[in-house]
Specification:
By secondary structure, the chain is mostly helical. Helix content is about 70%, strand content about 0%. This is Sodium/glucose cotransporter.
């Protein structure tokens, strides 16, 4: 039975995205936002604000922006060579830059706030809403990364016409390119912009009086307009260096921005621990403020049956075993996709592609989380009213605790660095969304359907125009989405992806799948998503408020996935297969293994296919075990539970040795293929 707190986090269609809904704390309309007073929009602060920037802070911020713009000019000539340089760095990125660029993109301004909200509401275990994607990520590393690299595509949508044929393939490629570039990307930009607005509003602009000039120009709205001016300036700066430098500049800037962001978060976490006199004192305060069953705040595995249980076992298993392949969102596509594929395509070779994706997964799940989690726990300890408000009102966003810790603990110098931390996180996401979205418009729309004979000069010019179009669309989305509930938009986006993961993964390994399989899965998942809940309500399986004994959001996700799979499998058999020439060309290029390519393999006996699928999956499972051992190991080490930390470290070391042996065998097998 799913009820109470779990229903607030596990809202369809995404568990994680509900936490990113930072705009909701600001009202319902943009005009109302500009007219409201700053103090009326915020929860009562715990103390007087002290995040006033000094000369050294401004110097740090100025240096960061100067270096970022410098990167854009440095790579300007290289990006102008051709479209491959602009979008995939001439396929020459080393793994460590490509992987760091991936993880920097997923470190947006909203991510630390989301993790803070999850932790304040449910303790550390609340983060399983995104930790549960680790298995899917590792399968992408060891099974799909080399396949994507062999395909030679520049965008993941380009694979459609490499794998399928006919008008249905062209329709799928063009429509999905426009959908991702001009709908998904702007929504993501609008989403992270809302989070950046919150950070600015709660830190450097908190209670900062308006200047005479601002009062003269904007009158009573001066304080509310100021964050938008800063964000608009940031968007323009991203537009400058992103359009000038192409993927090389974006990736290098991402690497720098990730290092700066992590350094700032680690410094803030260290200050948070020092503020309480040590990790053990912080732990005690968190337990005190968490309420009944306070030690549950530190449980990595939630209590499934006790008095304080909030997550039923079947829900946890659905998160762990189903969500990673049944739910789609950018950065966690089943089998890889989106900007992850773009970075794979930009790597030097298959080996660099695998290592880049592996580094992304390790950094994503093992390197980044604990600085955020420590700050989140500090927010829970410093501001107990955040948890109380969260439990009392589902619309309250306790993620605001992260910037409040910044505001109340950071000294001069660190204030500038922490401001840079969020600008870096914000800008790395924007630059990737801009370049990635433009790649669809140019490669999959302009070059494919409008100007197939376009010269490299024309394509390069179109790439810069497309980058600006995506960025401007994101700016418009930021204004339209601000102060609005975005649940409906995200439900629509994920409805088009929920249940489609299976076809995205199996299209590499089953020759019979065709373009209609993907098209039907997309629209079928939307149809099932819209009809499952009314049917459940009519049958009494759930109540009007979304609770119920059987059908909760996670069960709904699973139900939609099962029905979608059944539909596209039926349609696959009812529609003509892809023509032999297209299948043969794909098979010869990608060399996928497995028994489901048998008819094609018989026509191409000289193709040396992969024979290591089982070994690759075993490696992925072992690597996932490393993640799930390192996560509690680092936490136990921070809080002085050395025996538990040693046990986790030992398990992680054993699994690391196993993965190293398996990777060596995989490399040897691939070299003989």
């Amino acid at each position: 039975m799913i009820q109470g707190d779990v229903s607030k986090i596990l809202k369809p269609p995404s568990l994680f995205l509900r936490r990113l809904k930072s705009a909701n704390v600001y009202g319902f309309r943009f005009v109302q936002l500009l007219r409201s007073s700053r103090r009326s929009r915020r929860f009562t602060p715990s103390q007087e604000p002290n995040m006033i920037l000094t000369a050294i802070d401004y110097a740090i911020i100025g240096a960061y922006f100067a270096i970022t713009i410098g990167i854009g000019f440095w790579f300007r000539n290289r990006a102008s060579k051709d479209i491959a340089e602009y979008f995939v760095s001439g396929r020459s990125l080393p793994w460590w830059i490509a992987g760091t660029s991936m993880v920097a993109t997923t470190f947006a301004a909203d991510t630390p706030l989301a993790v803070t909200g999850l932790t304040i509401q449910h303790g550390l275990a609340g983060n399983w809403v995104w930790w549960s994607f680790a298995l899917g990520g590792m399968i992408t590393v060891f099974v799909y990364a080399k396949l994507w690299r062999r395909s030679g595509v520049m965008t993941d949508v380009e694979l459609v016409e490499l794998r399928y044929s006919g008008k249905s393939a062209a329709l799928l490629r063009g429509s999905r390119a426009i959908y991702v570039a001009l709908i998904v990307n702007p929504i993501i930009i609008g989403w992270v912009t809302s989070a950046m607005f919150m950070v600015l509003d709660e830190t450097v602009l908190f209670e900062l009086p308006a200047s005479t000039l601002e009062q003269t120009v904007f009158g009573d709205n001066a304080l509310s307009v100021r964050p938008w001016l800063i964000i608009a300036g940031t968007l323009m700066m991203v537009g400058v260096y992103g359009t000038l430098s192409g993927m090389w500049g974006v990736a290098v800037a991402d690497a720098l921005q990730f290092c700066l962001a992590m350094f700032g978060c680690i410094a803030l976490a260290w200050l948070a621990i020092a503020h309480f006199g040590g990790a053990s004192q912080l732990e005690a305060k968190v337990i005190e403020n968490f309420g009944e069953g306070g030690t549950a705040a530190f449980d990595l595995i939630p209590d499934f049956t006790g008095a304080n249980a909030w997550l039923p076992l079947h829900v946890f298993l659905l998160l762990l075993l189903v969500q990673w392949w049944a739910t789609w969102y950018p950065g966690a596509e089943p089998g890889g996709g989106g900007f992850i594929v773009q970075r794979m395509a930009a790597c030097k070779d298959e080996r660099h592609s695998l290592l880049a994706t592996l580094w992304f997964q390790i950094a994503h799940y093992c390197v980044r989380p604990w600085p955020w989690l420590v700050v989140a726990l500090a927010a829970l300890a410093m501001y107990p009213e955040l948890r109380q408000s969260e439990l009392a009102d589902p619309a309250f966003n306790s993620g605001v605790g992260f910037p409040r810790v910044m505001r109340d603990l950071s000294p001069p110098g660190l204030r500038g660095l922490l401001t840079v931390t969020f600008f870096a996180a914000f800008m790395s996401t924007l630059s990737t969304q801009m370049n990635w979205g433009a790649s669809y418009l140019v490669r999959d729309v302009y070059q494919r359907f409008m100007r197939p004979d376009a010269t490299e000069k024309q394509l390069n010019r179109a790439s810069r125009y497309a980058s600006l179009i995506v960025l401007m669309a994101g700016g418009v989305a930021s204004v339209l989405m601000f102060g609005q509930s975005v649940d409906a938009a995200w439900r629509l986006l994920l409805a088009l992806g929920a249940g489609t993961g299976a076809v995205f993964m199996l299209r590499w390994f089953w020759w019979r799948i065709n373009a209609w399989s993907e098209i039907v899965s997309m629209f079928g998942s939307l149809l099932f998503f819209l009809t499952v809940e009314p049917i459940a309500l009519a049958s009494g399986l759930v109540s009007a408020d979304g609770g119920g004994p059987i059908l909760g959001p996670e069960v709904k996700m699973f139900s939609v996935a099962v029905m979608t799979i059944a539909l596209w499998v039926i349609v696959t058999w009812l529609t003509p297969p892809v023509d032999d020439a297209t299948l043969d060309r794909f098979f010869q290029m990608v060399r996928p293994g497995g028994p489901f390519w048998k008819p094609v393999a018989e026509r191409n006996p000289n193709v040396k296919v992969d024979t290591d699928i089982g070994l690759s999956i075993l490696t992925a499972l072992s690597a996932t075990g490393i993640v799930y051992a390192v996560l509690p190991g680092i936490g136990n080490l921070i809080f002085g539970h050395y025996q538990a930390a040693a046990l986790c470290g030992g398990i992680a070391a054993i699994l690391t040795a196993i993965v190293a042996v398996l990777v060596k065998r995989l490399t040897r097998v691939d070299s003989h293929s």
